[in-house]
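Report of the visiting student (M.T.), summer placement. My assignment was to run the structure pipeline on a short list of targets and document each run. The first record concerns Acyl-CoA reductase.
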Amino acid sequence: MAVSWIPDGMGETETFTLSSGEDEWPGSRPVDWAVAGESLRRAHERLRELPVRRIVAAVDAVAERWAERDFPHRRRVVADAAGVTGMSEETVDRALDAELGNLRAGSLLAALERELGDPEVLDGFRGGTRAIGPRVTVAVFSGNVPGLPARSLVRALLVKSALIAKIPAKEPNFTAAFLRSLHEVEPVLADAVLATYWSRDDDTTLSAALAQADAVVAYGSDQACAAIRARVAPHQVYEEHGHKLSFGIVSDAYSRLHGPAEVARRIAADCSDFDQHACLSPQVYLVDRRHARAVAEHVADAMRRAAADCPPGTVGDQDATVLQHRRIVAEWRAASSATGEVWAADGLEWTVVLDDTLLPLSGAGNRVARIVAVPDVATAVDLMRPYAKHLQNVGLGAVGEEFWRTAEDLARLGASRIAAPGEMSRAGLEWRHDGQPRIAGLVRWCDVEKHPESVATAG
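After the run finished, the structure tokens were exported:
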């Protein structure tokens, strides 16, 4: 099935073949991007006529279909994503559960209300104020988490923006499949999106697509985002989701409250979800040294159980080499330390490392739980300071006054999300992604003030 979604009216198209390993998929993209852009602007005009609550209802209906694991579109996407990413089908299914669960009506309305106050400011003036979304948004997606493009795609549609979506090569099938199912429910929404692919070094197509945009959303490495940022014009709204790091912290009081086995179960969940490939996944858990060894021992058992419950994916040759090297370094350090230790599966399914030093972070993912013993929570925060520029998500295991004091320190340090251990990968749509309002950030506001009509309306 084609990895692209090209609505009618986009003009002449050219075909391409997207390859990943032994798999290949056909696709197409516009030849004349000016024609495609004009078609999307017309689609935007039709989209503006839809009430925002009708858009919410349509997305909710699609999410309800995708929630069923036997939904045909979902089964095809899961099989293809497992083949491309190496993740097990169960891991992909759980990723889709997490991502698409955020697209139900309650979550969408809560996110709109949090960022805009009254969602209906997108339909017309409400209390003298009006929110206008971009005519066309370009979104360049990465593929580290199956289903991730749905977030920005739906945000754009909620503010009634047409969209050019560059699909991720590492997970190319979801976006078009989601749009096909959206077309079955509300064609006006799906017809406002063009989803296609161009290679990373195809500057001509990137420039042509960007020329159609009023807003640009970029996902990827710092280098990839910088390349896009350099092309954004002053009049274009720009949102960026670059390289991010996440950590966990467990205090003495939290360990005493929940016990090492339960704390370990929560850490193992955070380090196993999405095979630890999401930016939200922890690189390291910093645990009070009075409990670090007991927690680490239980984490090994919990990682083993998690692997049996949701099998890890296949580790590619390059990642396998990196992971084996990380194990060798950890084992060498443990052999020369009175406190360090390594627990590992016979294969590469999971690894647990107990250490007392936060080494420079090298490599990530593939279910490696690094437990670093620290004297207290304040020290844990200090150890994270060198990574503040890229800090995103913290699983904070603390209670009472210590929780709020540490949360304040982490917010000042740069964290944009603080979650409970065990919930690190399950970010809601209400979260201001990477610390910015991602719905309100797309809109332009118009206010009526100092006008007799506004006074009369208010009265």
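The longest helix spans residues 317-335. The chain has 17 helices and 16 strands. I thank the supervising group for their guidance throughout the placement.
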